[in-house]
Specification:
32 helices; alpha/beta; 4-stranded mixed beta sheet
Length: 747
C-alpha cells in the first residue's frame, strides 16, 4: 500500500472547515440510516464515528468519506429480521468485514475499472435527484419522520413522490423560511465572486444562520416557532456509564449458525460493490483528479466493519453524499474526514444539547444544493452529446436508482451497458475495409487484440455478407488471443463454406499454435499476368485510385516481406513515373503502391534528357510498363529558381551556389512565355506564385511532347496503343494528383 498524507499545513484550515461541514451533514444522516435500517439510533452514530476516524486513517482516498450507507438499509433491515437479533447481526457484520479484508488483500479492487463511466455518472446524477426530492420536504418543514430522519430511506411501501404529496398538508412556516433563506444564501455565495473566493464556507454560514433564526423565531408568533421535531435530535447520555451502555456486543454463541455466514457474505459483497462504485464516482468529482487505491479501500472498510461488529454499529461504506459535500466544501486531504469523525465523537459524547439547536431545514438546504450540483443540466447535455451508447445507460441508471434502490439501479445500468457492448461487438467489433487491389476487391478484416465469444456474432455476419466470388483477408497481426470457438468457426468457413460459395480466404498473422498458416491468395503487387491484362487507361485509373486512398488516409495493407520475396525473381511494373526530386513527392506513397509496381525516375524539374529517355524506353519496351506519367508539382523549387532567374544577368551558379544546375534551369525557362518574362519583377507575390505553378504545368506539357518527339521507341508503342504518355500535377498542399494529356502532342 502506498502512503497517503493525512494532512498538509497548507490545506489544514480548509480541511478543518470542510470536516465541520461534513460533520453537520453526516449527523442527521447517521440517525436516518439507522432508523431506516431498523437498527438502534446510536449504531448509526457509531458508524459515522468509525467511518470518519478509523476508515479515514486507513483509507488511501483523499476525498472519500465513509459512514453508514443508505444503499444498505434494505439489506440490513432484511438481515436483522432473518437473524432475529441485533447482536447476531453484529456477528455476521464481523464476518463480512473479514471477507472484505480478504477481498482487499486479494486485490479485488480492480473490478472498479470495469464500471462504465455512463453508469458512474448515472449514479452521481441519481444521488443528486434523490437528494433533491428527499430534501424538499425537510427544506419546507415537513419533518414528520421521528428522530429527525433525513436519509434516503429505501422505499418499502412509500416512495419519494408520495412524500412530496404528504408534504403539502404538513408545512412549517418558520422551518420553511430558514430552508429557503439557506438555499438563497448558498446560491448567492456561488454567484458573488468575492464571497466565492473567501475562505469562509457557505455551508457553515448557513448552519449559523439557521441557529440564529431559530432563536429569533422562538420569541415570535405567527407559527414561526421551531419545535423539537424540526431540529436535530441526538441521544443524550447523562454519564459516561450511560454512554458506554449505548454500545452493543456480538452474540458469539451464534458462531455455528449458517445464516450468520450467509448474511456476512451478503453484506461483504454488497458493501464492497457500493464502496467501489462510490469511490469511482468520488474520484471523478475530485478537482485534482487523484486516483484512490481501491483494494486498499476494501481493506480499510473491512477493518471498519469488523470494529462495527465488535462495538454495535451498522455497516460502513464509502458514501457519495458526504464525499460530495466534502469536496464542495473544499476538502483537500483525508484529514477532513477524520475531523468529521472526531467531531461526531465529541458532539455525541459532550455536546448533544448544542447540536440539537440546529434546524433540519438548513441542513436539508445544504444537501439539496449538493444534489443540484450532482444532477446538473450540464451533465445531462454532456451525456446527450456523447451519443446514445452513453446517454441511454446514463438515463436508465438514473431512473432505476430513483425508482428502486442504489444497487438494483446500478445493476440495471450495468446490464444496459453490457447490452450496448454486445450490440456494438456484433456490429463493429473489428476493423473492416474493402480494399481495391490490382486483381480485384478484397474485404480486409483486422481482428481485435482479444477475440472472444463476444466477437462471434460479428464475424458470422462478415462471413454471411461475403458475395459469391469475393475475397476475404483475415488479418491477425495485432491479435494476441483468439477464442478456440472462433478458431473453429474460421476453419469451418475457410475449408467448407467458402469453397462452396466461391469465396477465397486469405490468412495473415495467425500464431503458430493456432495452426492457421499465412496464405495470401490475391496480388497486392504487379505480376506478369496482371501487367498483360491491363490497358494503359486501367493503369492510370489504378494510380488515380491509389492517390485517392493516400489523400483519405486509407492506404492498402501490404505485406512488404511477401512482396520482397516475390519480386526478387523479376519485376513487372505497371508504369514509368518521371517526377521532381522534391522530397514531398515520393511516387510510391502518393499513389499508394507496393514493391515492383512502378519505375520511378526523379530529377529536379522533371525534365527529360537522353539518360532519362533511355530509362523510360527500358521500362516500357523491355519491362512492359503500360503508362508513362510526367509529374510536376506546385511550389516547385527548381521552377521557382528558373522564374526568379528569368532575365537576370547573374548566372545560376552565382545565384544559387550550384555548379551543375544551369542546364536544368535553362530547360525549365523554355516554358516561360516572353510576356511573363518581362513582367516578372513587377508581379505581386500571389500572382508570382500562380505564375510559378503555371510554368510548372507548362513544363510538364513540354516534357510530354519531348518524350514523344525524341523517343522513336516510345512513340511507336503509343501509336500501337500499348503505351500512353500523360502529364500530371501534384498539389503539395492537398496531396491531390490531377492527370492531363497535351492534345497537341503528336504521336
Amino acid at each position: 500500500m502506498t502512503a497517503t498524507k493525512i494532512f498538509s499545513r497548507t490545506t489544514l484550515p480548509r480541511d478543518m472547515i470542510s470536516g465541520m461541514v461534513v460533520f453537520l451533514v453526516a449527523l442527521p444522516l447517521c440517525l436516518g440510516v439507522a432508523l431506516a435500517s431498523n437498527a438502534p439510533l446510536f449504531s448509526g452514530l457509531l458508524a459515522g464515528i468509525v467511518g470518519g476516524i478509523v476508515v479515514g486513517l486507513l483509507s488511501g482516498s483523499h476525498t472519500s468519506v465513509s459512514g453508514p450507507a443508505a444503499g444498505l438499509t434494505a439489506i440490513v433491515a432484511a438481515q436483522l429480521t432473518m437473524l432475529g437479533s441485533f447482536e447476531t447481526f453484529l456477528l455476521a457484520l464481523m464476518f463480512g468485514g473479514l471477507v472484505q479484508i480478504v477481498f482487499g488483500v486479494a486485490r479485488a479492487g480492480f473490478l472498479s475499472a470495469f464500471f462504465p463511466s455512463s453508469v458512474i455518472k448515472g449514479l452521481l446524477a441519481a444521488i443528486g435527484v434523490i437528494l433533491i426530492l428527499k430534501q424538499i420536504p425537510h427544506v419546507l418543514g415537513h419533518d414528520t419522520d421521528p428522530e429527525g430522519e433525513m436519509a434516503f430511506r429505501q422505499w418499502d411501501h412509500e416512495n419519494t413522490l408520495s412524500e412530496l404529496y404528504a408534504m403539502l398538508s404538513d408545512l412549517h412556516l418558520g422551518a420553511a423560511l430558514i430552508g429557503l433563506l439557506s438555499i438563497s444564501t448558498l446560491i448567492l455565495w456561488d454567484k458573488i465572486p468575492s464571497l466565492k473566493k473567501s475562505s469562509l464556507p457557505p455551508q457553515l454560514v448557513v448552519v449559523l444562520l439557521g441557529i440564529g433564526l431559530c432563536q429569533v423565531f422562538q420569541n415570535l408568533g405567527w407559527g414561526l416557532r421551531i419545535e423539537e421535531s424540526h431540529l436535530v435530535q441526538v441521544p443524550v447520555a447523562k454519564s459516561f456509564a450511560e454512554f458506554v451502555g449505548f454500545l452493543k456486543w456480538p452474540d458469539f454463541s451464534q458462531w455455528s449458525n449458517p445464516a450468520v455466514y450467509t448474511a456476512g457474505l451478503t453484506l461483504a459483497i454488497v458493501a464492497s460493490l457500493e464502496t467501489l462504485l462510490n469511490l469511482q464516482a468520488v474520484d471523478k468529482l475530485d478537482p485534482r483528479q487523484r486516483p484512490s487505491p481501491s483494494s486498499r479501500e476494501l481493506v480499510a472498510q473491512g477493518i471498519g466493519n469488523v470494529l462495527m461488529g465488535l462495538i454495535g454499529g451498522i455497516p460502513v461504506t464509502s458514501v457519495i453524499v458526504r464525499s460530495s459535500v466534502n469536496i464542495n466544501a473544499g476538502g483537500q486531504t483525508k484529514f477532513s474526514t477524520i475531523v468529521h469523525g472526531v467531531l461526531l465523537l465529541v458532539s455525541v459524547a459532550f455536546l448533544p444539547s448544542w447540536l440539537n439547536m440546529i434546524p433540519l431545514s438548513c441542513l436539508a438546504a445544504i444537501l439539496l444544493v449538493t444534489g443540484v450540483k450532482l444532477a446538473s443540466p450540464a451533465l445531462v447535455r454532456q451525456m446527450w452529446h456523447d451519443g446514445r451508447y452513453q446517454f441511454l445507460p446514463f438515463v436508465l441508471t438514473v431512473l432505476s436508482i430513483v425508482l428502486t434502490d442504489l444497487l438494483t439501479g446500478v445493476g440495471i445500468g450495468l446490464a444496459i451497458s453490457l447490452a450496448f457492448i454486445l450490440h456494438s461487438n456484433m456490429r463493429r467489433p473489428m476493423r473492416r475495409i474493402v480494399e481495391c487491389h490490382l486483381d480485384g476487391d478484397v474485404t480486409h478484416v483486422e481482428l481485435a487484440n482479444q477475440v472472444s465469444f463476444l466477437n462471434r456474432a460479428a464475424l458470422e455476419n462478415v462471413f454471411k455478407s461475403m458475395p459469391r466470388g469475393g475475397h476475404l483477408l483475415l488479418d491477425a497481426l495485432n491479435t494476441v488471443y483468439i477464442d478456440p470457438d472462433i478458431l473453429s468457426m474460421i476453419r469451418e468457413f475457410k475449408e467448407k463454406t467458402a469453397p462452396i460459395r466461391g469465396v477465397q480466404v486469405s490468412l495473415r498473422g495467425f500464431r503458430d499454435k493456432y495452426k492457421l498458416d499465412d496464405e495470401i491468395q490475391y496480388a497486392d503487387y504487379s505480376t506478369r499476368e496482371l501487367q498483360d491484362l491491363l490497358t494503359p487507361a486501367q493503369v492510370q485509373k489504378i494510380l488515380q485510385e491509389g492517390n485517392d486512398r493516400f489523400r483519405a488516409g486509407r492506404r492498402l495493407t501490404r505485406d512488404l516481406e511477401r512482396q520482397l520475396k516475390a519480386t526478387a525473381i523479376g519485376q513487372h511494373p505497371l508504369a514509368v513515373v518521371l517526377s521532381c526530386v522534391d522530397s514531398r513527392t515520393p511516387t510510391e506513397l502518393i499513389f499508394d503502391l507496393g514493391l515492383g509496381d512502378v519505375f520511378s525516375i526523379r530529377i529536379a524539374g522533371n525534365i527529360v534528357s537522353d539518360k532519362v529517355l533511355g530509362s523510360m524506353e527500358y521500362g516500357c519496351a523491355v519491362a512492359g510498363a503500360k503508362l508513362i506519367v510526367i509529374i510536376g508539382h506546385t511550389k516547385c523549387g527548381a521552377v521557382t529558381a528558373a522564374v526568379n532567374l528569368a532575365g537576370s544577368k547573374a548566372n545560376t551558379e552565382q545565384a544559387t551556389g550550384c555548379q551543375h544546375l544551369e542546364p536544368i534551369i535553362q530547360e525549365i525557362q523554355l516554358s516561360i512565355d516572353s510576356q511573363s518574362w518581362t513582367q516578372m519583377e513587377t508581379l505581386p507575390e500571389q500572382a508570382k506564385a500562380d505564375l510559378i505553378n503555371a510554368v510548372a504545368r507548362q513544363n510538364v506539357l513540354r516534357t510530354v511532347q519531348s518524350v514523344l518527339q525524341q523517343s522513336r521507341t516510345i512513340n511507336q508503342l503509343a501509336v500501337k496503343g500499348r503505351l500512353k504518355v500523360v502529364g500530371a500535377m501534384y498539389d503539395v498542399d492537398t496531396g491531390k494528383i490531377e492527370f492531363f494529356l497535351d492534345e497537341a502532342a503528336v504521336a
